[in-house]
Structure formats: structure tokens, C-alpha cells
User: Fold this.
Amino acid sequence: MARTVRFRTRHGVIVALDAETVDDCKRTIDLTTAVEGVVGYKLGMTMALNLGLAEAVRQLRAHTDLPLLYDHQKAGPDVFDMAAKFVALCAKAKVDGLILFPLAGPRAVEGFVGESLKQGILPLVGGDLPFPDYNMSGGGYVADDALERIIDKSVEVGANHFVVPGNTPDKLAHHSARLKSKLRAPVFVVPGIGPLGGKIGDLVRAANGCSVYGVVGRAVYGAPDQAVAARALVDEAMAAA
Assistant:
């Protein structure tokens, strides 16, 4: 079973720590961790490559007790027998959740999602990005129904947190409607807020009553007042609930 990761509000914001320096990432946490509705932080390659994953988590944990979700720039499109090794390292580093894009097939879903659950890490499962040329219908390389099939397999394995592009409310409406018939309380994490065109209020309204957490990077860490920027996004989400 995944360790209990409790987001402290029903809707809110996960701040992406994608600033250029480690100190900038820590400053973002210090300025936003007390903002009600900021529910966690997404740790990506900037700090992991600078410090190593375990050291990055150790340093960030000194600044917040909110969940730390590791995005290995979309782990999961790999051979399935790498899953146990990868997840074991993440568990050792004490991350709370893993963002996974298991595009390598059903065995990748079983491996990466299943191992996360075994190791006590919350899997947040996706397979779609907020870019118009990602799917085949937009000129990209990934089948339009790939995320739907990944989600269905992930539900079989035991996942209930899913990553859906935040600048396509129609996709969120589609996936949330489907999952409400399969799960008691599906949760959606939505990147693509702000500069990529997504509006968190639109997404909350599109989610058929499911919890929605916007993943926000530049719109917060690039703002003149990061706390004010975070609070405005949270307020927008709550007003749409």
C-alpha cells in the first residue's frame, strides 16, 4: 500500500521546483509553504542532478513538511525490469510520490506503478503532455488514447492519482467522468497552468467533482511576489469548486 499522502485541501496547487538554482527552489518553498491550498512540491531534475535525489529531499525537507513528489522527467517509458531498481532508489531517498509516464506498455504500468505501491510511494500516473503536437492527432508520435489505456491499467494495479494536461479541460472532463464510475475518489494532478494556457478554475469546473491540483512552476517561482501568486491560484481553484 502507498504511504498516506494527504493533500491538505480538496483542490489546490503543487509548486514545481524548476528554478535554476537550489537556493531559488528553497526560497520558493519558504515563501509558499504556509499558503493554504499549496499542497506539495514537485521535485524535478534541477535539484536531483545538482545534489542527488536523496540529498535534495533531505535539504528540502528542512523547509517543509508538505509532500515531495519526484518527477524523473516522466519515469516509466523504460523496460519494465528497471522499475524495481528505480523505485527502490526513490524509496531510499524518501520521496512521497512519483510522477510516472509508463508509456512502454502494460508491463511498464504493472512494474512502475506496482513497485511504487509496494515500496510505499504514491504513484501519480500520466502519459500525456500539455503540448498540441504530442498526440498523433496534432502531428505527434503518441496515440491519442494512450493515456486512457494507461489509466485503465493503472486502476487495475491500484492507482487512484492521475496526471492530465491542464490546458485541455475537455480531456480532464473525459477522464474524470470515466474514472468516477471506476473509483470512489479519483484525484487529478494537472500541469500546464499559466504560461502553457491552463486555468485552474476551468479545470476544477471540468473535473466532475473530483479533486484537482494544478502543477505550477513559472507562474509562482517567476512571480514578483510568490506567495501572492500562489494564493491567487488557490483562490481561483476554490472559487470554482
Q: What stands out?
A: Residues 12-240 form a domain with the TIM Barrel fold (CATH 3.20.20.70). Residues 137 and 144 are 7 Å apart (CA to CA). Strands lie at 12-17, 38-43, 68-75, 97-100, 122-125, 161-163, 187-191, 211-216. The chain is about 40% helix and 15% strand.
